[in-house]
Design brief:
By secondary structure, the protein is of the alpha+beta class. Helices cover 42% and strands 27% of the residues. The chain has eight helices and twelve strands. It starts with a helix and ends in an 8-residue tail after the last helix.
């Protein structure tokens, strides 16, 4: 958890709301005056292209804040749709309250800054994945992005990705067809890089890094 205990305790003073799976929390273009803290569940942020296809931009899970601009005082329109992937519980914090609270408490402001530095680093990994030329490389770098952003080490070197992902969702995240994504996932499974069952993924981090050839990522 990157957000400090003082900030979490402050969030819990506000009411929470439960959202059913597939319900929209925010619409693209919507202006809101609240910040959302995820108590449980997971969400996706996405846009829809001119062909009517969904393109997933980012995922959000337990202890995440969104949208980024509102939590730091901006009133910009939502750039994406925010939709519940699972039944989710969100705490809704008025933007002006959060701004006043963090301005008077430097440690809380630093906690939010640290959170967004981590979020920025994770987003850069996502961009790096999309820049890869081959489908196999796009997928391996995307798996690393998911591992860093949503992974939990369950035993030494093996991580569980704490979001339930269909192959179509992964395809949408990368911009590949579902068939190509399925074939590339199977190739990674045969190499022992990952395993998956019922939309849950387990990743061997060292095998993934070796396949990527990115020694500099070892310290991340």
């Amino acid at each position: 958890m990157l957000l400090n205990e003082e900030l979490i305790a402050y969030f819990k003073k506000f009411p929470s709301r439960k959202y059913r799976k597939d319900s929209i929390v925010l619409y693209q273009g919507e202006v809101a005056r609240s910040v959302y803290y995820i108590v449980s569940g997971a969400l996706k942020a996405y846009s829809i292209n001119t062909q009517g296809e969904e393109r997933i931009v980012l995922f959000y899970s337990k202890d995440d804040l969104f949208p980024i601009p509102w939590s730091v005082g901006s009133r910009a329109n939502a750039q994406y749709y925010f939709e519940a992937l699972t039944e989710s519980e969100l705490i809704i914090i008025p933007q002006h309250d959060l701004k006043s609270f963090t301005q008077s408490r430097p440690q809380a402001m630093q906690s939010i800054a640290d959170y967004y530095i981590h979020a920025h680093t994770t987003a850069m990994m996502r961009i790096n994945a999309l820049e890869q030329a081959k489908a196999s490389e796009k997928l391996t770098y995307t798996i690393f992005y998911l591992l860093q952003g949503y992974g939990q080490e369950i035993h030494e070197g093996v991580y569980k990705i704490n979001i339930s992902l269909t192959q179509q969702m992964i395809a949408s995240l990368i911009g590949l067809t579902r068939e190509t994504t399925a074939n590339e996932l199977l190739a990674l499974k045969k190499k022992g890089v990952l395993s998956y069952k019922s939309q849950r993924y387990m990743v061997n981090r060292q095998k993934l890094l070796k396949l990527m050839g990115e020694e500099s990522f070892n310290e991340l």
